[in-house]
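Quick one, tokens below. Sequence please?
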């Protein structure tokens, strides 16, 4: 079993191997859950400019059946501190980067990746200035048959081509979803 600490200690080439192993996620276990996200490959100065931790959510939309989600900006308190969302002037959690978890079968990915699921940010109603809307990110279970620890790979789809980034992030289950957020625009 690979642990969060194991992932935190890995180099990008080792993380790429975990993604290539492509263990399918038991997607039914994702419905209405939230995960602590940790960027594990960007340089420290980027973490200081942006963030290290964030939250990813998964919500099964009862109207469409789509498993969708969004990112939540967190106050940066490290991996073990309380994970509190940053809030806007209205008191609401700051969210961004909405996505759908979709089957990867029949889709083309960089490096010939062939896994079961990916996050598609282009179909989830993101606003034009949200560059995350270009995300087309493989997502895998780190350990076979378990949705407790996931690993994502940042890939942008621009036109018909890909921009694979050397950026990996882990997702560790926090528990049940605490708030459902509406997408910025109607999904396509």
């Amino acid at each position: 079993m690979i642990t969060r600490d194991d992932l935190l200690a890995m180099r990008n080439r080792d993380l790429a191997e975990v993604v290539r192993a492509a263990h399918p996620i038991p997607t039914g276990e994702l419905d209405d859950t939230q995960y602590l996200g940790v960027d594990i490959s960007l340089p420290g100065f980027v973490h200081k400019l942006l963030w290290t931790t964030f939250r990813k959510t998964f919500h099964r939309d009862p109207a469409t059946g789509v498993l969708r989600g969004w990112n939540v900006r967190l106050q940066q308190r490290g991996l073990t501190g309380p994970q509190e969302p940053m809030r806007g002037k209205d008191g609401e959690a700051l969210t961004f980067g909405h996505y759908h978890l979709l089957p990867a079968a029949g889709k083309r990915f960089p490096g010939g990746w062939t896994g079961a699921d990916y996050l598609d940010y282009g179909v989830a109603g993101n606003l034009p200035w949200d560059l995350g809307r270009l995300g087309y990110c493989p997502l895998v279970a780190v350990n076979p048959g378990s949705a407790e620890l996931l690993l994502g790979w940042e890939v942008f789809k621009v036109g018909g081509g890909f921009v694979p980034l050397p950026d990996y992030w882990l997702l560790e289950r926090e528990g049940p979803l605490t708030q459902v957020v509406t997408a910025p625009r109607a999904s396509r």
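The longest strand covers residues 161-176. The radius of gyration is 15 Å.
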